[in-house]
Structures are given as C-alpha cells and as structure tokens.
Amino acid sequence: MYFGNYGIPYSSAPFEQNYRCYSASFIDKPHLENGDKVVMPPSALDRLASLRIDYPMLFEVHNPSTLRTSHCGVLEFVAEEGMIYMPYWMMQNMLLQEGDIVRVKSATLPKGTFVKLQPHTKDFLDISNPKAVLETTLRNFSCLTIGDNIMVAYNNKKYYIDIIESKPANAISIIETDCEVDFAPPLDYKEPERVTPPPVSVPAQSSQDATPPPEPEEPKFSAFTGTGRRLDGKPGKLSTGSIPSTSSTTPTATTSSVQKPTGTPPAGAQRPGKLVFGGGSSNAPAAAKV
User: Which family does it belong to (predicted)?
Assistant: First the structure.
C-alpha cells in the first residue's frame, strides 16, 4: 500500500472488473465508432484513482467465452453502473453480442515503433493520400493489437484494416509516439496475369529440303573427243565419241604402210591432226603400192 501527496492510499494491484458491454448505438455518442475508446461507469474512476496506474489509462478487454483479447483507452466515466459502452467494430473483433460479459483490466503497453496494416479492399489505396487519412484516424486511437480489425471512415465510406504486425510487442501504445507504418497488399488484391507470347511456329522442312544438295561432280577428262578420220582418207566407223581416261587397255591401230590422204575430206570432218583408236585388222587400209 502506497500513499499519495494527499494521503490517499494507492494499491499496487491492477484494476480488474467485469461489465456488460453494449455498442455505441445505446448511448448518444456516435463518435465512439471512430476510435478505440470506451465509456466506463463512475465507480471505475474511483477505483482507478486509488491504484497506482500509468497514464494514459489503457485497458485489456477479454471475452471469457471466446478467449478473444484486445486493448482500448477510456473516453469518459458516465456509463450506468455495471455497464460499459464500446465501439461496435471492437465488439465484432471480440465476438461480443449486446449484453455479453467482458472483463476489463488495466494494462501498460510499450510505445509502438512499427505497425503493418492490411486493407480489406484495394480501393483504400486508391485514396489520394491513404497515409494521411490513416494518420488522422489513428489520432482517435490509444493502442493497436495484432489481430484487430479497425475501421477507417473517409468520404462517407468505411474501410476496414487488419493489424498484422507491430513492434516492439503484439500490443502497442500509439499515444505521442513516432510509429512507422507499412502496408501489406489488400486482401482482394490479385497478381496481374502474365501474358505468355504464343510460340513461334517453325515450318517443318520437307525431305527434299532436309537432303543436302548433291556436290557438283568434278569434270572428267575426255581425250580426243570429236570426229576422227582414217589415214587413208575414208570416213572411220567411229564418227564421234569419247574414250575416258580411266580405260585400262588402249587399242592400237596397225597399218602396213602410211600414205598421204588423197582427195577432199568429207563435209563436217574434223581438221587433220586428230587420231582415232579402235580400228581392227579387217578394217585396216589397203597397202599402198610402191
């Protein structure tokens, strides 16, 4: 037991009391919905005055039926005895119905340094300056708890935001503190589908295209092509032809004597100097008389 400057005894025991909870619609204070503060009975103020509590006054609210827990501040002490008025969004977080029993306990929370929020819908990020709107709204809040779903009212529309991360604890005080705010992708956000370009079709090569072109044949040597002439001036049997150089045997022309050709060569005959191989003995020219 401790005594203050005015001789009032102070107790080190925390404040803890059960109340029946009701939403702000049961009291003429609609602005309760814009923050996290509750309205408690006057007896709670008397009890708190006798305790060594930290200011600002923060409380832990607990639903014994569902074991859900959150935190809040206090706005006024004007509620009926045994009753407490809460924002409706807070009752939804704790799964409380009108008239349910809730346990209220004094709490001390560290000052927050970081909080990560996740909007339910992506249209909240379409606001011209969502961080400024959020900063204005959070001025009505005393603390934030991981797992809570707070409501932000802007331009006659309500936006719901989840508290998914906080530092240095799961529940933090945001009164007179610089707290860094980060946003996670909204719950209804979908990754844009990547458009895959159609595959480029390569025409299949036909069997003719697939077959490499034949290599050009090397020119073969052909000796003594053209029309030949016999030594006796008569036209030979092989008027035209070619003998490839790859022949293994070469026939030899046999003559008993050589005589200068007489007469005029037939039309179309090749000029003198060309030889014809392949004449037999039966076709040999007659021997010239001496």
Answer: Belongs to the UFD1 family.
